[in-house]
Amino acid sequence: MGPLVVERISGVALLRISRPEKRNALTLAMLTELVDLVGEEISAGALAVILAGDDEVFSAGVDLSALGNGIDDVHVDDLLATAIAQVRATPVPIVAAIEGPCIGGAVELVLACDARVAAEGSFFAVPATQLGLLYRPEGIASLVAHVGRDTVSRLLLFNERLGSSEALRAGLATHTCVRGAAVEMAFALCEGISRATPTAVSATKELICELLSDDSDLSHWSARRETLLASDERREALAHATQRRKKGD
Predict the structure, then answer these.
(1) Residues 168-184: pLDDT tens digits?
(2) Which end of the chain is least crowded, N or C, by CB within 10 Å?
(3) Sign of the C-alpha dihedral computed for residues 7, 207, 125 and 177 taken in this order
(4) Closest Cα partner for 92 from 142, 31, 44?
(5) How far apart are CA 43 and CA 32, in angstroms?
(6) If we measure between CA atoms, which residue out of 95, 119, 99 comes closest to residue 38?
(7) Can you say whether residue 148 is alpha, beta or left, with left for phi > 0 and alpha for psi between -120 and 50 degrees?
């Protein structure tokens, strides 16, 4: 069994990082494989993807053995940035189920997900300065956009570990749960996705991502919306909703 394990449950792909001997640290090959696996599951019809760790650890971030002692380390940044951008751009929702430590590049990876469930006992940390690093500027910009200057300063300047409750207040997490229940709650969230139409979900996620970019252009979205309104998928969804309302569901 490799360091990334996938299983399909009720139309949802559960992707586990399983490298417990290295606290689920991500090698460069794993980053590439993770993106490929997500793409394969979506192509196979997955309605959503849950990203989780194994052995009560989410991830210790990028494997330090991938780092050298000089400027060549920028290739690690480039690969991480590519993986994060591809996760953010997936056409189906991705939920991060976080148990235990979520460190370094793993923090940025989960922020690319659409929801983040942090269990009691989990924590977020970005100890870049302890490694003598200026964290990649695009990554810091993304962190500031998500959680603001004060939280980023706590993580990067003061090297604080933020537990699940603080992470929820700061926006690092979107939901919290008891220890050991992160995957269960992630599946519960995905039940809401299963009641929606895939095309509407995909279009809505794409629009949200575009609104968060610096070059959002809403001019083409009216036409996209009209196409969706006239689709068979939408008519079927409306008919089902009408039937449920008549039944009192």
Answers:
(1) 999 999 999 999 999 99
(2) N
(3) negative
(4) 44
(5) 17
(6) 95
(7) left
The tens digit of pLDDT for each residue in 125-172 reads 999 999 888 898 999 999 999 999 999 999 999 999 999 999 999 999
Provide Rg for the chain, Cα atoms. 19
**Contact (Cβ atoms closer than 8 angstroms) between residue 159 and residue 125:** yes
Question: Which CATH class name applies to 4-194?
Answer: alpha beta
- Cβ proximity of 117 and 95 under 8 Å: yes
Interstrand relation of 94-98 and 48-53 (parallel, antiparallel or unpaired): parallel
Domain coordinates of the chain in residue numbers? 4-194, 198-247
- 8 A C-beta contact, residue 101 and residue 57: yes
In terms of Cα–Cα distance, which of 135, 14, 1, 126 is closest to 61?
126
Residue 131 in tokens: 């490694």
How many alpha carbons lie under 13 Å from residue 149 in its C-beta half-sphere? Answer: 0
| Encoded amino acid at 237, one letter | A
Question: CB of 190 within 8 A of CB of 179?
Answer: no
Across the range 104-133, mean pLDDT stands at 96
Q: How far does Cα 200 stand from its chain's mean position?
A: 20
Burial of 131 (0-12, 13-18, 19+ CB in 10 A): exposed
